[in-house]
Amino acid sequence: MFRAFLLFTALTGSFTVSAKEWLIDVRTAAEYTIEHAEGATNIEYQQIVTGALKAGVQKQDTVHLYCRSGRRAEIAKELLMQNGYQKVDNLGSLRSEEH
User: Fold this and answer.
1) What is the three-class DSSP state of 67?
2) Tens digits of per-residue pLDDT, 33-51?
3) pTM check: above 0.90
4) Helix (H) or strand (E) holding 91
5) CA dihedral sign, ordered 23, 28, 31, 33
6) Is 94 a catalytic residue?
7) Contact in structure between 69 and 93 (CB atoms under 8 Å)
8) Which of 40, 52, 67, 88 is catalytic?
9) Which of 19, 21, 43, 93 has the most CB atoms within 10 Å of its CB?
10) Residues 6+ apart with CB under 8 A from 10
């Protein structure tokens, strides 16, 4: 009976599951206020798991993290992966290095 309901709702379009992409700045709110990438959500790395849940990030979503140097983004990536997020990558620094 439940499978029939799922099939019906999937066919009628009233039940959809879709993954989303997130760009998350894991720096402090003060750093984010000064400068951030367009479209980025600010969740400090220490609160990444609870902040992601609060923001609505689903475990099947793709999550791109960045910070000033990449160190905090790597910590946040590890925390998310330990909590079941599969598609997480560390973009590294907000700024590109000029040599």
Assistant:
1) strand
2) 999 999 999 999 999 999 9
3) no
4) strand 87-93
5) positive
6) no
7) yes
8) 67
9) 43
10) 16
